[in-house]
What does this fold into?
Amino acid sequence: MFTISKEFHFSASHVLDTLPSWHPCARLHGHNYVVVLELSADDHALAPPGFVRDYRDLDAFKKWVDTTLDHRHLNEAMGGIPPTAENLAKWIYDTWRDDLPELSAVKVSETPKTWADYRP
It folds into this structure.
């Protein structure tokens, strides 16, 4: 199995309004997010000249991130799904799995020390 990944960055706000009011994440705040797309293929499914997928094919994802997520309020951008890092990873996967059939995982970081992964 071959795996490639590419990292993307955006800044956004969110509120986790189901948390108790004393919790800091229950207040409006923002993060500088990092999203990593992981794509996988076995050696029989590589595209010429031996790619899982050409990294340039991910330009559409970058444009989508810039348009849909960057400097947005995730509570609105995600259509009411609670905007935790975990839910954001799954939402991105669900949104892009048809366009990127090799997509095997999405990782989301809100801070340099925290990561959430979604792998179906």
